Amino acid sequence: MSDQLLPDAPERLAALEARVSQALDYLGDRPANWVPPRDGIDRDVVIVGAGQAGLAIGFALKRDGVTNIELLDAAPKGQEGPWRTYARMETLRSPKDIPGPELGIADLTFRAWYEAAYGDAAYHAIYKIPTGAWMDYLLWYRDQVDLPIENDVRVTRVEPCDGGFRLHLDRSGTPGTLTARKLVLATGMDGFGRAFIPDMIREGLPPDRYAHCAEPVDFEALAGKRVAVLGAASSAFDYAGAALEAGAGKVDLFCRSAELYRYNRFKQINYPGVLHHYVDLDDADKWRIMAELMKRSVSIIRETLQRSTRYENFSIHLNAAWKAVTFSGDEIHIETEMGRHTADFAIIGAGFEMNPAARPELAGFADQIALWRDRYAPPAGMESEAAGAFPYLGSEFQLIERVPGAAPHLADIHLYNWAGSVSNGRGSSETTSIRHGVPRLVRALCRDLVRADADTHVARILSLPVAEFERDEYGAE
Fold it and tell me: Is residue 13 located within the same domain as residue 150?
């Protein structure tokens, strides 16, 4: 990546932004809000999460005339999502030309922004999108779509109320509330649970001696240290590479399998027919797909592997699941299937666990949410504990009650994050999915809002509009 903006980048970006505004004018995409207000309700839709998915959802709602919305994000502006905190990959893993949150507007694409800022030649020179550049683009996109976003706000509890939900908020230590008719959780990889850290690590190590790959790490503090990485998926290798680049003395990566998995089988879902219509498969076919894909971690890409293997002080240990972890003599002691190891710091790349009770947005009714294990009994030999723990969502990303009639409010919570993968496939928050999933979600939100106010809309439709002309204009006797 060229990190040098073109000398005339400000002028080029201003011209691009003028084209974006003109494109929206050409499309007529500035409709007035059409949702009637309700007493006691602050927002028609609240989106928790202002990363790439949340921004795209907010923009799509705005284009459809639903403007009484708000996006909430716990992070400061510029740190939404993983890109500047715990995402340690050098580039996005997907091709640079895949559609993203631009929703069909060419001048809102990453390419349009990058070429305006760095030049056409610079865009053609990059193989994949640099992670930092992607975040810079999202911040530019955020400015163009002009959404009501509140940063540094945590949702601490959600409770049903008359006509919707009451969100309890923590605004940098100041409590508050916000009511909404519809709630969208665009909360990323851990949006239905939390980072998975095995009990032997939580119980065996001091908290300052380990970190999950979903947490920021002070890599500079690892210079000269021995680092043990548990896991062999992409994030584990990203953190291993970052530690090596920061001068770690030795990095050992532990894989429980006999070889690194070389296939990214989730790529097989990545074509329009299935991106659009995976959701239309029956439960048996969805289960056949996801139960199989979840048997193994997604393969790392070659450049991720080479980022670490080029260092002589990096080692991969196969068949090396951790059996026990202890801390003594200021050292981490790790017992694996293949022997014992010592380290100064441990990085946990063990993925995420589905645990809605761990999410403040869902904890109040976690036991009322239907999971796949509640709705589908797989044939013998096709069991999958992992797939069974995912939420069983409706076709429009809505939560479904475990016991029919016990929690009807769940239908107004839409889960647009990784946890929707078993029910909705890749149309669940990845960059690849946005063009397919967001329009379906927004159509459902708008439909539900219209149905809920059907009497008002019928009256509006049947009321007389402004007359096209006056009686005295047609000269009748």
Answer: yes
- Picking from 222, 203, 202, the residue whose alpha carbon sits closest to that of residue 212 is 202
| pLDDT, tens digit (0-9, with 9 covering 90-100), for 196-220 | 999 999 999 999 999 999 998 999 9
> pLDDT above 90 covers what percent of the chain?
86
* Segments forming the whole domain that contains residue 316: 198-261+296-346
CB 134 within 8 A of CB 153: no
Please check whether residues 205 and 184 belong to one and the same domain: no
The answer to the question of residue 475 being in a domain is no
State how far the Cα of 46 lies from the Cα of 413, in Å rounded to an integer.
10
In a domain, 464, yes or no: no
Rounded to whole angstroms, the Cα distance separating 151 from 72 reads 6
Q: Domain boundary residue among 346, 376, 406?
A: 346
| Tally of CB atoms within 10 A around 145 | 21
- What SS3 class is residue 273? helix
CB 23 within 8 A of CB 107: yes
Closest by Cα among 195, 185, 190 to 49:
185
Contact 424, 393 (CB under 8 A): yes
CA distances, 105 to each of 17, 116, 416, 433 (Å): 12, 16, 22, 16
Task: Looking at the structure, tell me whether residues 158 and 97 fall in a common domain.
Answer: yes
> Is 291 contained in some domain?
no
Confirm if 69 and 43 have CB atoms less than 8 A apart: yes
| Percentages (nearest 5) of helix, strand, coil residues in the chain | 40, 20, 40
Total of domains in the chain? 2
- Domain-embedded: residue 282: no
Query: What confidence tens digit (pLDDT) does each residue in 144-185 have?
Result: 999 999 999 999 999 999 999 999 999 999 999 999 999 999
User: Rounded to whole angstroms, how far apart are CA atoms 251 and 380?
Assistant: 41
> Which of 300, 294, 305 has the alpha carbon at shortest distance from 418?
294
From the list 255, 244, 240, the residue with the least C-alpha distance to 347 is 240
C-alpha to C-alpha distance for 24 and 105, rounded to whole angstroms:
8
Token pair belonging to 103: 């929703």
Does position 326 have pLDDT exceeding 90, yes or no?
yes
Helix 110-118 vs helix 9-27: angle between axes, to the nearest 10 degrees?
Answer: 150
Question: Going by C-beta distance under 8 Å and a sequence separation of 6 or more, which residues neighbour residue 157?
Answer: 167, 168, 360, 363, 364
